[in-house]
Design brief:
- The chain is 37% helix and 20% strand.
- It has 494 residues and is α/β, with parallel strands linked by helices.
- It has two domains: 221 residues, nicotinate phosphoribosyltransferase (Alpha-Beta Barrel), CATH 3.20.140.10; 239 residues, Aldolase class I (TIM Barrel).
- The strands form six sheets. It has a seven-stranded antiparallel beta sheet with strand order 17-16-1-5-3-20-21. A six-stranded parallel beta sheet has the order 7-6-13-12-9-8.
- A hairpin with a 5-residue loop joins strand 10 and strand 11.
- The protein is elongated.
Length: 494
């Protein structure tokens, strides 16, 4: 995308600069999840702020606005706005003044990424740093909202799955068993667009190491200061697909020939998965695999048998039981069966939070450890959740996320800005008032917000404020690494 950044907004944002009261020199806004439409999910993982500031507020604005020819920039803006809302209805000089300033006069403070932010608590504060540009923070609302809500929800989804993994690994697996590869992100092709796929997968990778989304790796390396050559950023997998299995079947007339080729020629020293339901899944599991028993046990890697259709709970658990009968395994320190390391079950179709938990619960009931399976989570889980028999889509409004101005300085005087609609019967559109401090309540360990502050009282509580500097005047103020964020979110490690 190469659209002028001053056009990356709702139309009405272009008119607001002259609608604010005369003498307005400062506005402070907060980005807050104001409610939850989901049962028992009352916090959201903070993720994507640092990447947004670098990618858009610095790189994008520089390339497509500040470092371009002024005439070209203004012509683009005026051509669009003159022919849509009318040249008399906006003030183009505001954009010219910003261009000459040469940077975005904005300060952004936010909760550290990987923090679980409770509902009603703002995770981001944004204010102008130059008195002539009080209109800029709210002008950025459309862009920052569109870019942040989705990766934060995907990071939250990953965390929800990770909680299930931790529960069943604690119960059924040796303490030393890695958890980061228990589940993987399979959602690329089902996302709304490439950008969504990349940022969604990056959010997922806060809790897990497996993803099928290749561009998530360079995205994380660039924006979260990690290096896949030096540390575990994320991993892909070697796997077949139906086109591979079916085309080989068309030539060979069977499936065993391709399996032998995979084991002995293509990947003799690598683990790989084989999609196994192109024709008759249980025939492959029960009749073909026994013929390959010695070759599988001699293989320097793990063969993952992948179902791709049918009832996930039944297919996955029965596969584990059948593999145990054929290949055996060991009993771990907690008394649960673990398959021989040469074989494992994997499933990547229609996995949901409920089905993931049901698979682990069924395995536990039959004496098998949760680590016998790997699950692939697709776009369904990244875009909606099932609760009480109802599919609830993930949108910005799932958590009522919104950027609202709450404090201003007008003619040198501080003013409290807030909204409290009487027609809002659900009472979630009521905004915070004044300046805010987000703090860790020492009495119960919960993150809370204190609002209705002025500049003096906020300064008094500044040392306790968890909203930390991220961006100021076109420059990054701090740099959080992927490792930092993972450790903050997953205290037991990736």
């Amino acid at each position: 995308m190469s659209i002028n950044p001053m056009l990356l907004c709702d139309f009405y944002k272009t008119t607001h600069s002259r609608q604010f009261p005369k003498g307005t020199t400062e506005l402070t806004s907060y980005f807050t999840p104001r409610m939850s439409r989901l049962t028992d999910i009352n916090s959201i993982v903070v993720f994507g702020v640092q990447a947004f500031c670098q990618e858009y507020l610095i790189d994008y604005f520089d390339e497509h606005f500040f470092k371009r020819n002024l005439a070209d920039v203004t012509n683009e803006i005026e051509t669009v706005l003159d022919n849509t809302i009318g040249k008399k209805n906006y003030d183009s000089t505001r954009f010219v003044d910003l261009y000459h300033l040469g940077y975005l006069p904005v300060e952004i403070n936010a909760l550290p990424e990987g923090t679980l932010c409770p509902i009603h608590v703002p995770f981001l504060e944004m204010k102008n740093t130059h008195p002539d540009f009080a209109w800029v923070p709210q002008f950025l609302e459309s862009l920052i909202s569109a870019e942040l809500w989705h990766p934060m929800i995907s990071a939250t989804v990953g965390h929800l799955y990770r909680q299930i993994v931790d529960e069943y690994y604690d119960k059924t697996c040796d303490d030393s068993t890695p958890r980061g590869k228990a589940l993987g992100d399979f959602s690329f092709r089902g996302q709304e667009c490439l950008q969504s796929a990349v940022k969604s997968s990056a959010g997922w990778c806060l809790s897990f190491l497996n993803t099928a989304t290749v561009p998530a790796i360079p995205y994380l390396e660039k924006n979260y200061y990690c290096d896949a050559s030096l540390e575990p950023v994320a991993y892909g997998s070697v796997s077949t697909e139906h086109s591979v299995m079916c085309s080989n079947f068309a030539v060979d007339g069977d499936e065993i020939t391709m399996l032998r080729r995979l084991l002995n020629e293509l990947y003799p020293h690598s683990s790989f998965s084989v999609v196994s339901d192109s024709y008759d899944y249980w025939n492959l599991v029960d009749n073909i695999l026994p013929q390959l028993h010695d070759e599988i046990m001699a293989h320097d890697g793990c063969l993952l048998i992948r179902g791709d259709s049918g009832n996930p709970v039944e297919i996955v658990t029965q596969t584990v039981y059948h593999l145990w009968e054929q290949f055996g395994g060991t009993i771990n320190s907690k008394g649960y069966k673990v398959l021989d390391p040469h074989v494992k079950a994997i499933y990547g179709d229609s996995i949901t939070i409920q089905r993931c938990e049901a698979i682990y619960k069924e395995l536990e009931a039959h004496g098998f450890a949760a680590c016998n399976v790997t699950l692939g989570v697709g776009s369904f889980s990244m875009q909606c959740i099932e609760q009480d028999g109802i599919l609830k889509p993930f949108t910005r409004d799932t958590f009522g996320m919104a950027v609202k101005a709450t404090h201003g300085v007008i003619d040198g005087k501080e003013v409290t800005i807030f909204k409290n609609p009487k027609t809002d019967t659900d009472h979630f559109k009521k905004s915070l008032k004044g300046l805010c401090v987000v703090f860790d309540d020492q009495q119960d360990g919960r993150i809370r917000v204190k609002d209705e502050m002025n500049q003096k009282t906020k300064n008094f509580y500044r040392s306790a404020d968890m909203l930390q500097p991220v961006f100021r005047n076109g420059k990054m103020m701090r740099r959080q690494t992927l490792s930092d964020i993972r450790n903050r979110l997953n205290l037991e490690g990736i």
